[in-house]
Amino acid sequence: MAPSNNHFAAIRAKKRKADAANPKPKADPTAAVVARAEPKPLRKKEQRVGNLDWKNIVLPSEFGFDEDGGLLELDEVEGVDVVYADGKVSFQVREQDEEDGAIKPPKAKKQKKSKALPVVEEDESPFPAEDLSVFETEEQLEEPAAEEESVLEETKEEPAAPAPEKKAKKAKGKKRAEETPVAAPEAVEEDFDVERDLPNWSTFPLASPLYRALAELKFDKPTAIQERSLSVEIGATPFVEPPYVSKPEDEAEEEAEEEWGGIAEDDSAATAATTSAEPYVSVFPEEPAPSTEPISTDRDVVGVAQTGSGKTLAYGLPILSYILSHPPTPSTVGEPVTRLAALILAPTRELALQVRAAISEVAIRTNALLPDELQDPNKNAPRKRVRGQHVSVVALTGGMSVEKQKRQLSRGADILVATPGRLWDLIGEDDSLARQIKNIKFLVIDEADRMIENGHFAELESIVRLTRRKGEEDEEDEYVDDFTTAVSSASKVDTLESRPDMRTFVFSATMSKDLQRNLKKRGRRYKPGQPEDGMSSLDDLLLKLDFRDPDPEIIDLSPEGGLVDTLKECKVECMLPEKDVHLYHFLLRYPGRTIVFLSSIDGIRRLHPLLVLLGLNIVQLHSGMQQRARLKSLDRFKSSDNAILLATDVAARGLDIPSVSHVVHYQLPRSADVYVHRSGRTARAGKEGLALQLVAPEEKQMQRLLMASLGKDVDLPELPADYSILDALKQRIELAKKIESGQHKATKEAHDDNWLRQAAEAMEIDVDSDMDLSDGENSGNKNSRKKKKSKQANVTRMRAELQALLDKPLMMRGISGKYITTRGRVGFVDQLVEGTGHSTILGIEASTALEDLPKAKKRPSKK
Ligand SMILES: Nc1ncnc2c1ncn2[C@@H]1O[C@H](COP(=O)(O)OP(=O)(O)OP(=O)(O)O)[C@@H](O)[C@H]1O
């Protein structure tokens, strides 16, 4: 109901009455004069666009790849005049507010020094709903905003945003939060107790905020690789053996068994501090902790474990734990804070972004949630966190804005996740980045074996070189390639010492036993660039890593053959040209998130339009696509339960997309490792999944070799096909192929015509009379226009025909479209009544591929 005029009149009368009761203090006329006299003349200074105070806009999707909801980069800048003069554009900022290119806000009140880590800016928070306005007023909060600003000032003298801007942003952030459903972190009990609430993690001496984060993520217990590697990386009750034990092996084993579970009776005796920060808990409590040579948990780890087993946190947790318990402090007054603690190198852009997201996901949850009374009363709104103490994780990958990455770096990062190419480019431009890398505490090489394959070996080698200690390099310097020499001598960082206590973690799902053995031989001298016989480039790279640990711990939990236990494999044998129809059948018959791997980009370019015409929810991912399109594809794939991703091996490694039900190998990969990684996109984190191979007769030999190298002595079960509908599917595919070819020709002709026309125009030639290019009424090319029109009409007709076929339900043999009978297919009526039938194929039960899978047959042994 609209309010009436009387209603407003009543409100006005009420207000007049209230004003009369509480008269406002009259404005002091002299104050006005003073105020008018105050403003300084507004001088402006021109600034380069890269030096403006760009601010990143809050990202709507919490941890997705495409964090800007489709826009890869969205920054804003305020207080800048864009001036057009003499055909040039310049950017002007007020001079009294500008310092070092940034707009300086009113100085924040200096607070007592906080031990909190430097904060990322409010707009970098993955929790867009953080309403920080309450912070200025609520005394009970642990981390008042002003205090954080003092940390900022202290560390980088980076100014906080001026108050009015801040307010506007908060409002914006709030609005966005209301619009965008964000996975709200679930509150963890106020009286959270690690021993009681998270017993499986409590044996690991992690920084305490991490337990809360793990509880919020509902990661109740560590995965096997996490358990094994954490016990080496940070020390814990199980698995740790004191290095000074000189007893026979079986005796030691006996003792270990007695103490198993091992919680020593006397905890204090069991705790041997290795470094002051990282307590070591021995399983042998009666052994006194050595005082002169403490047991080191500063171990280096090479971890090999199946796909989807949680390797990211196996190395991410010790890093976060270290950062949270070692807040950066400036060493000397005036010196910049050395903040970068870890460098994680990943082979692909998508993987680097995903690793950043996975670590940030934990990092952000190390912040406490606001108390209930300060939460938004709107129940659907995401819960908010106390601002501050964010650990900043920055991704440096190709295909994204360099300027933005530089700005993120300049704000300070605790963890860098990078692809080698982009990182090396940035190091080349910025000596301070190289210096920071020399000082990192953790170097991680993720998916090590893939890293060397993707064309950035030189960069990777050079980055690794930065982390080597001096003595380790000297002998090799004469072998350093020109590229490395040029960059490092130009940057003059070569003279700096790299950190003596840096720790190295190398992780992958596949790593040959030979390689693991080679790592053990690292002590030997070797000449770079001259790999020894039988050494792969990966051996070469890993031997170049300067493990500080004389005996890096190798944890190999990879199952026989490398595939996950929860993965079921099967095959469909068919002729090469039939692969499309079998794929289409599988996709229709077994809906669910599916990745189809092809060996070539051309294959994807052919198949993609076909499946689109058939009405499937298809996206593609390959290296021929722009980065932005690649990330968008992944986002689209993740956002639908029934999407299909056609991909090359660029998507084979590391991508952690939740609930992928099937992986289809449209063509088999040539190496067993790639097969393992591809298949590992499904059956992750303990879930079941299915890998289907489409095998043509000419591929059978290769398939056999592949299976043999995976140690499989069974014939994969053949997934049954519903032959009665294959004909109908074939008909659809044939038609779709014709349409695609018709469309392709038309586009190509139009393109060629256009090109010719443009070329002719450039040469001032009249083409209409000689060539088939005219649309003009009087040209003599009516025939050709007619042809074109008829081709177009043909495509239109075929499209309508295909639509009619797609609209017609697919029916199993024996099912009548006219009469509902129980003949032919027993139970069809029941299915209709109970709704248990398949959604697109009438007459069959809705079942999963895993349910339909026959048992694998043992291959007859060769005589
Ligand atoms: N302790 C845990 N409990 C439950 N889930 C976990 C745990 N740790 C990690 N996960 C989840 O398991 C999934 C797989 O983790 P991750 O991507 O680290 O696997 P991975 O071993 O690196 O796989 P790949 O070899 O394919 O790269 C992720 O979705 C992650 O959130």
Bound molecules: adenosine-5'-triphosphate
- CATH C-level class of the domain at 196-236 and 297-326 and 338-367 and 388-469 and 485-520 and 536-558: Alpha Beta
- Annotated CATH topology of the domain at 196-236 and 297-326 and 338-367 and 388-469 and 485-520 and 536-558: Rossmann fold
Number of strands: 26
Structural class call reads alpha/beta
Distance between the termini: 90 Å
Into which percent range does the helicity of residues fall? Answer: 25-40%
What general form does the structure show?
globular
Q: Average pLDDT across residues?
A: 69
CATH superfamily of the domain at 196-236 and 297-326 and 338-367 and 388-469 and 485-520 and 536-558: P-loop containing nucleotide triphosphate hydrolases
Oligomeric state of the chains? single chain
CATH architecture of the domain at 196-236 and 297-326 and 338-367 and 388-469 and 485-520 and 536-558, by name, is: 3-Layer(aba) Sandwich
Region (Disordered): 1-33, 93-188, 766-796
Biased composition (Low complexity): 20-32
Motif (Q motif): 199-227
GO molecular function, one term: hydrolase activity
Question: What does this protein look like?
Answer:
With 863 residues, the chain is α/β, with parallel strands linked by helices. Among the domains are: 196-236 and 297-326 and 338-367 and 388-469 and 485-520 and 536-558, Rossmann fold (3-Layer(aba) Sandwich), CATH 3.40.50; 567-721, Rossmann fold, CATH 3.40.50.300; 813-854, no CATH class. It is 38% helix and 12% strand. It contains 29 helices and 26 strands. It has a seven-stranded parallel β-sheet with strand order 12-13-11-14-15-10-16, with helices on both faces. Strand 21, helix 24 (672-679) and strand 22 (689-695) form a beta-alpha-beta unit. The N and C termini lie far apart (90 Å). Residues 1-12, 23-40, 58-73, 96-184, 237-296, 474-491 and 523-534 have low confidence and may be disordered.
